[in-house]
FAD-binding PCMH-type domain-containing protein (Piloderma croceum), 480 residues
Amino acid sequence: MARDRCLFVFACGLLVASSITIVHATSPSNSSKNACQLLAQSLGSKVQSDGAQYNTSAQGAWNFFNQLDRPTCIVFPQNASDVSVAMEAIYNSDSHYAVRGGGHSAMPGWNTIQDGVLIDFSLMKSFSYDAEQDSISIEPGVLWNEVYDGLQSQGVSPVGGRETGVGVSGLLLGGGLSYLSSAHGFACDNYRAIDVVLPSGELVTATRTNQYSDLLRALKGGGSRFGIATRFEVNAIHTGTSADKIWFGGSVIYPNSSSSEMLKALDNFIYSNRDSKAVILMGFSYENVAGAISTLAYATPFYNGTWAEFNRTFAEFLAIPAITTTLGPLSYNDITKILPPDAAESEGHLYGASSLYPSQGLFEEAFIHWSNFSAQSQIDISNANGGTAFSPPNGAYAAVQLAKDFFVGVTSVSPELRDGIKLLFSQIPRSPGLPLYLNESDETQDALKTYNWYQQLKKVYEKYDPTRFNVRRLFGPNGL
């Protein structure tokens, strides 16, 4: 059954996608073949150019648009040393390459490569809790649901993704919005150390206090350009076990006719709420199923406190007539499973982003899907932890995700739809001074250029990649 889903929500065209094929970065065949030959000699069976393991990886990206490429070879490292060897061979061969953690990117080409080397972290999925240091160590190939489920018996969790099928490394390097963000900052604010393989193949460990502190900050939202992260050490948040029902909340589905009331409530909540124990995810969607348009409006409010506090904090939302309501006591592990499983790997995805200050009528006028509330406390926490690459100014604002999903193996996007997307971005511009959220941006939006730390970010990049290898050979964020 043909269908597509639009989470742009406002003035979103449901156009037939039929004429422009998604084009990814390509690599000169000789350089990639040379890199793969060197890798096969040094890493043996950890390098595959065909066969079952190769095919599973080549077709394993979440975004169907990223399943269309055929890498010259795929490296399956098992440790940081393997990554160093791989990067050195890629660098010396001047080959294009790509890196995949969990593979959950809507950006075509960010975790795949045609005629180049793909580094696939599917065999590096270890994670552990160090009670003495009260920290969590995570390798880049693991998914958030695996981390949450694996640590819940110890009563701890990292500040991580809301959609549990998302990979750890992509979310962290892009900044990371979390249900815990209002109290503990962005996911990347909780870095203690990162092991990083630089473009030359050198392995370093960056912390807030050592000689690589500038690299650590660049990796707090700066994306993949600066090096390959092979291990993250992050703060452990004591969220309780699955038996500890210390949160209240759940899911509320509204008729789309209530969108005006919901957006007013959202505007008021972002503007007035300063309670770091409260968080809400809210969205609107239009779905085309065999030519019939259906709509959905939903909210998932949570409060780390009492039932009375929950009802008081979200009173304006709860007063809006709902279709279904599932609210009650929850453990944090319950919360991570509230959102339904993400779209299947047979679907293509395009994202875009905006970021808005609350003001009377702004959200109603734009009628957008906003993705997370960032309270004043979150920004304070971020600045107190050395800042991020995007360095948002103090004050509450909403990070907005604009998404379109294509079903039934759509492999191309029409010029009309591309033009419509660009028009939508121009109609919902970011508020002055606010950065875009990298992981939900379109490549044409040049998210890095919206960062308040942009000039310093370029200097850090020049320091760690003086030959500009990653800009030339790794498809990723523009602007460096």
DSSP finds 16 helices and 21 strands in the chain. The longest helix spans residues 29-43. Residues 247-450 form a domain with the Vanillyl-alcohol Oxidase; Chain A, domain 3 fold (CATH 3.40.462.20). The radius of gyration is 22 Å.
